[in-house]
Amino acid sequence: MHVFVKPINRFLACQVCAGLLFVQREIKMTTTGMTFFDLDWANKSADGAICRRCGFVHTFLGGGLQWLAPDQVKADDLPEDPLAGAAELP
Questions:
Q1: 68 close to 2: Cβ distance less than 8 angstroms
Q2: Cα dist. 70→61, 86, 89 in Å?
Q3: Which of 22, 27, 54, 80 is the most buried (most CB within 10 A)?
Q4: Are 55 and 15 within 8 A, CB to CB?
Q5: Percent of the chain residues topping a pLDDT of 70
C-alpha cells in the first residue's frame, strides 16, 4: 500500500531505499514502567509502515496517515523512486 502523510501532504518514501510500497502493522510503544508492572498491554500503539523493499520500519503516532491501495494512486503523485523495478520483499 501507499502511505499519504497528511501533515505534510505528500506520499511517504522509505528513508533507507526510497521504496514507495509499505505494509501496515500495529506497533506497541513499550515503556519500562508498564513492563515492570506486567502491563505492556496498556501501552499506546503506533502505526508502523514497513517498507516492502528493504524492511525498514517507519513508526508514526497520532493517526496522521492515510493508507491507499496502489490502484487508488496516480503515478504522477508519487515521489520519484531511484530504484524503480528493483525486487521487493514478498
A1: yes
A2: 23, 17, 16
A3: 22
A4: no
A5: 78
